[in-house]
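Let us practice reading a record.
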Amino acid sequence: MKIILDAMGGDHAPEQIVRGAFLGMKKDEDIELIFTGDEKAIRAAMEKYDIPEKGIEIVHAPTKIEMEEDPLCILKSKKDSSMAM
């Protein structure tokens, strides 16, 4: 099963999103993770927690979304954001 996660969404992102997803992945061998977001930040989080790349794909999304932005506008105007991808 493939699970796509916006690694940049949430508190303490991307570290806690990446770490939590990997912990879940370890419980089920059939899970493949696809993270969307800032590739450099995601890779740094993976290195911090010694997370191997096996079964994980990163889709770089360079555009940052601010907390106060309207979700509908994001999907229309920021197509290269982690949420839209």
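A brief commentary: The mean pLDDT is 89.
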